[in-house]
Write a structure and sequence with these properties.
Layout lengths: L17 H11 L5 H19 L13 H16 L3 H7 L5 H13 L22 H4 L6
Helix pairs in contact: 1-2, 2-3, 3-4
Length: about 140
Amino acid sequence: MPAPTPENLPTPISGKTTKPMMRLVVEMDWPYSAEVFEFVHRGLAHTVQRIHGEKTEPGVCRHVTGRQLCEGLRDCATRRWGYMARTVLEHWNVTTTFDFGRIVFMMVKAGLLKTSEGDSVEDFRDVYDFKALETEYRIPA
């Protein structure tokens, strides 16, 4: 079995398809590009798998924190776009980790994701500077 990458992870997590997700983005006139919602959705799958491993028994909590998700999204972005990760995200109007939080909570409001008690959009504030997307990238050997 190939190692999981952001491109080959299963989607979607919530049982919804990405097409309805993109339709919601257009209908609700959100400030972010529809592509970033799919990226966050896939990045969440990547992060959950990285932290919790393969799927477990039904009903087992596979929660990740805002910080963990931001770090997983950074990993996904740099693996997928390398030094261009920051540029791609900025093209989608995502310039800070707080934007990831806003996107997650928009998806929660739309019924596409769930949160745990105590989760807050503030968990995503200032997790890292987006300059890290450029400086921490290493070309795979």
